[in-house]
Amino acid sequence: MDHVATTNRPIAVGIADKHPAVLDYAAREAERASCKVRLVHAYLVPASAMGSVYGLDVPEAYRAAGQEVLDEAVRHLTTTGATAPVESVLTRGFAPNVLEAATRSARMLIIGPDESKPWYIRMFEGRVARHLAGHAECPVVVVPDTWDVPHDDAPIVVMVDGESSAHGPLEFAFETASARGAELRVLHVTSPEQGTHDDQWDAIRRLVEAWYSLHPKVRGSSEVVKGDVREVAVRTAENAAMLILGRPHERRVTGILMDSLAQEIIAEAGCPVAVVPSTYRA
């Protein structure tokens, strides 16, 4: 996204159905950022359903059903005591396109699991999440149904695999850790066969050190870890408050996102996962 301050941008939430964990997570993030929650729901009217059936206005029925999804989400936030302002947006259109458009004016987009697939499978295969992972103009956070408020000592974990794609994820990671007062762990995983010297890590380490100098109150560590990506990620992120992955400027999903093992990594981590464009700026 362009370098435009996100101070007044809302936290957008893609609402597909009943996902209380997504709403609770969004409410906490909005309260922390002192911004509003924007609930977004997209609906389609099949061509075969156009017109009316025995006096029923079918398009209006689809719209009404979509409005009820939003109304129920608002009721949940109200009854659980959420204090952030809430607005709802109902749009007729294809969900990936509607949600991508929502990312242009949001500080982040939060989505939940697909009813037909586990959320971590949807992250890689689902049309909505995969489209957003490659095209969203702000960070996209996928929240599992099992999410609960993390322990105070739960760290923010960001995995970086190259200097060119690390800028956005690192900025988001430091911003998140600073806002939460959380520990930050920066990981770069290499294969056991790789030599002791890693030029790529040297460049990343210098970048990370620069970010720590800009955020002296953020406590944490940065390290290169040799081993299997899945094993390292599961070991370090299973108790994390958030796992952050990067997306390069070319608008394609990175290697770690396309790796089939990544499905297992995120499934076992059990924490929200943020996919952040390399061009992200707070």
Helix content: 40-55%
Domains, number: 2
Please work out how many helical segments DSSP would assign: 10
SSE series: EHEEEHEHEHHEEHEHEHEHHE
Strand content: 15-25%
How far apart, in Å, are the first and last alpha carbons?
Answer: 10 Å
Major β-sheet profile? 10 strands, mixed
CATH architecture heading of the largest domain: 3-Layer(aba) Sandwich
Taking pLDDT < 50 over at least 5 consecutive residues as the criterion, the unreliable ranges are: 118-125, 249-259
Mean pLDDT: 80
What's the CATH class of the largest domain, please?
A: Alpha Beta
Radius of gyration: 20 Å
CATH fold call of the largest domain:
Rossmann fold
Helix vs. strand class: alpha/beta
CATH superfamily of the largest domain: HUPs
Shape, per Cα inertia axes: elongated
Strand segment tally:
12
Give the spatial strand order of the biggest sheet. Answer: 5-2-1-6-7-12-11-8-9-10
Provide key terms for this protein.
10 helices; Rossmann fold; 21% strand
Task: Walk me through the topology.
Blueprint: E1 11-14, H1 20-33, E2 37-43, E3 52-53, E4 56-57, H2 58-79, E5 86-92, H3 95-103, E6 108-111, H4 119-125, H5 127-135, E7 140-142, E8 156-159, H6 163-180, E9 184-190, H7 199-214, E10 220-226, H8 229-237, E11 242-247, H9 255-258, H10 260-269, E12 273-277
Parallel strand pairs: 1-2, 1-6, 2-5, 6-7, 8-9, 8-11, 9-10, 11-12
Antiparallel strand pairs: 3-4, 7-12
Helix pairs in contact: 3-5, 4-5, 4-10, 6-7, 8-10
Q: How would you summarize what this structure contains?
A:
The chain is of the alpha/beta class.
